[in-house]
Design goal:
Layout lengths: L6 H11 L18 E4 L6 E5 L6 E6 L5 E6 L13 E2 L9 E3 L10 E9 L4 E10 L2
Antiparallel strand pairs: 1-2, 2-5, 3-4, 3-7, 4-6, 7-8
């Protein structure tokens, strides 16, 4: 027995599929104890790290008084390392809580970036990267 599917039905099915979803955080492992950070230029920089892995928190602070200008993560559950690269400043990753900000970055001013993971074996947070940057 042969099955005939009208062309319109096949076309509609193809159109409704759309692009695949990006990799979920579960697809990546939790970050090792140290990662390499890259930050693009501008006042809404993209923050990325290698190896690509899951983090618990991103902190951006003013370098003069160390006050937070943006803080995301670790607010839903301590064990949720849900943040995966890349992340755009001011845009919280899906499913990640915002603890502070974002405060607009000022060109020419220096900030401190900190990336943190939650280690379920020791039940502590560990900073895996930190650096100064100037948009």
């Amino acid at each position: 027995m042969r099955c005939r599917v009208p062309l319109l039905t096949v076309t509609a099915a193809l159109v409704s599929c759309g692009p695949s979803e990006p990799a979920t955080p579960v697809a990546l492992s939790v970050c090792p104890d140290s990662v390499m950070v890259t930050i693009t230029a501008g006042t809404t920089p993209q923050i990325s790290w290698t190896p690509a892995c899951r983090l618990s928190e991103i902190q951006v602070a003013d370098s003069v008084n160390a006050s937070f200008v943006w803080l995301v993560g670790r607010h839903a559950s301590p064990a949720d390392n849900l943040i995966v690269p890349p992340v755009t400043y001011g845009v919280p990753p899906t499913g990640v809580g915002v603890g502070y900000g974002p405060t607009p970055l000022v060109a020419g001013h220096t900030y401190i970036l900190g990336l943190w993971k939650f280690d379920s074996t020791s039940t502590y947070w560990h900073q895996v990267a930190g650096r100064f940057f100037t948009p």
